[in-house]
Amino acid sequence: MIIQTTLTQDVNLKGESLMLWLKTFFGILFQTLLLGLFLYLPAFTLSWFEAFLFLCIHFSMTILASGYLLVYKPDSIQARLNYDSEAQPQEDKFATSLMFSAIIFGLCLAPIDIFHLNFSPAFEGLTKNIGLGIYTLGMILFMASINANEFAETTVNIQEERGQKVIDTGVYSLVRHPMYTGFIFFITGVNLWLGTYLSLLLSLTFLAIALRSRINIEEKTLLNDLEGYDDYCKKVKARLIPFLF
């Protein structure tokens, strides 16, 4: 009986692990296709090699990083897949929508100005290539944040059932919101690689507004409900950029 129970538990664990791998893979595929839609639809053409190259790089980096996390930090991946809209405060729903809108806006502006408006020149040469490097840094920061913080869900809530605690190691020892720092590098890099001066300026402005709203709500919740977060804020003063802000 004990052996049968153990075998059943092993089968269940393997089944859950397989489902997590499948959810992650199809989630990444869907995300990449969505990014492609936000780039190619406003461009109204498929003849855009730089966008295709970006999507290939993004898919490859995300698959490799997620594979590592699935092996060594599966709880962190599971946290990113969790979404409880009922537990999410109304003000956080607005801030989350604003964040996603800022990212979509940042992607769509590049092809709109490049292919239609031509209000400002596109980035070229070394600056354009540096954009890919900045984007890559953003992705590394994003994945490093997930690796360090197994409680990094997409919604702002205290996960008492999982024993949530303050994370102050890894990239969280440098800034309080490294994942959002990654978003800044992501949008900056994409616009340097694919966009124009105007698309970069407007994208970062919109993102700054969204980040301010989301960070204020997140920190208010953490300060009120997560033990030790106040001491963490005193120790790590920078929200996004070390020694600056």
Question: What's the arrangement of secondary structure elements?
Answer:
Layout: H1 2-43, H2 49-72, H3 74-81, H4 90-117, H5 125-148, H6 178-194, H7 197-225, H8 229-235
Task: Describe the 3D structure.
The protein contains eight helices and no strands. The chain has a single domain, classed as Up-down Bundle (Four Helix Bundle (Hemerythrin (Met), subunit A)). Helix 1 (2-43) runs antiparallel to helix 2 and helix 2 (49-72) runs parallel beside helix 5 (125-148). It is globular. It is mostly helical and 245 residues long.
Looking at the chains present, what oligomeric state does this protein adopt? single chain
N→C terminal distance:
59 Å
- The proportion of residues forming helix, as a percent range, comes to over 70%
Overall CATH class: Mainly Alpha
Keywords:
245 residues; mainly alpha; Four Helix Bundle (Hemerythrin (Met), subunit A); 8 helices; 0% strand; globular
